[in-house]
Automatic annotation (TrEMBL), chain A:
Pfam families per the UniProt record, alphabetical: Gin
Species assigned in the record: Filobacillus milosensis
Annotated InterPro entries: Sigma-G_inhibitor_Gin
Top-rank taxon: Bacteria
Protein name per Swiss-Prot or TrEMBL: Sigma-G inhibitor, Gin
Automatic annotation (TrEMBL), chain B:
GO biological process: one example: DNA-templated transcription initiation
Pfam families (alphabetical): Sigma70_r2, Sigma70_r4
Name of the molecule in the record: RNA polymerase sigma factor
Gene for this chain: sigE
CDD domains with a match to the protein in the record: Sigma70_r4 (cd06171)
Task of the protein: Sigma factors are initiation factors that promote the attachment of RNA polymerase to specific initiation sites and are then released.
Superkingdom as given in the UniProt entry: Bacteria
PROSITE patterns on file: HTH_CROC1, SIGMA70_1, SIGMA70_2
Keyword terms of this UniProt record: DNA-binding, Sigma factor, Sporulation, Transcription, Transcription regulation
Amino acid sequence: MEQKSMKQCKICEEWKNEGIYLLISFICSDCEKEILDTDPQDERYQYYIDRMKRSHVSSLLIQ
Amino acid sequence: MKRVWYRIKFFFLTLIIKLKGKPDEIYYIGGSEALPPPLTKEVEKEMLDRVSNGDAEAKSKLIEHNLRLVVYIAKKFENTGIHIEDLISIGSIGLIKAVNTFNPEKNIKLATYASRCIENEILMYLRRNNKRKTEISFDEPLNVDWDGNELLLSDVLGTEENIITKDLDLSVDKNLLKSALSKLSGREKQIMEMRFGLSGNKEQTQKDVAEQLGISQSYISRLEKKIIRRLKREFNKMV
């Protein structure tokens, strides 16, 4: 049952229970926290942009 | 054709969501007008209350129903050279930050606050990007030879050999000069200070010095040569 409710995070690709949805993309709580702590000036920021692009949310939104 | 492709994509994505069991209704494909509509004031308040109790589902709902803002604001920055997909990703991050940091007790609507956060996020990214454009890496290839070897910027960059000791040498020279000048008579020292702008004075021509001291220019010239010879002797004694 526990296994069934797990979702794959679009950022870290790990299977987690807790997190948020951005349309079809699940973002786990750990990645969400990291995103909140990352500024556009940080090197890591581009990584999140690329991962979010891979989740296809952006392409869906620009229709 | 493009429209048909999106409809096919929509069908499969909806299917995936249903299979994964995401509980909420979905509105989002086929144009930004089909994105989840803004929530009513009452529902938004209920969601915010649930978010404050740690309800991730309510948080997702708040994010999704404000995605129109992301699209609207991202499109305003389309002429900046950043791809619209990037802008939407950045805007989405701004929206996530907005929903997480929104304080319902403050007298501001979530949509207003989120708009500011989204725009701010994009502006900060653009600022970083503009700054980076002016930066050049030491590993920037300047040229490639016939064998494919790259000539890097770091290969041609260099510094003067004495860059470290230059200031020290200058300081030592100044002290030597001061010491040598102290060996001169008052008049000789005055002539050197006037001619070469020592002690913060402005350099003057032999003619100007001669006029001020009431002697001929040729005499100043002879005196100057004599004083310089003497200073050289003093330097040689010191070093």
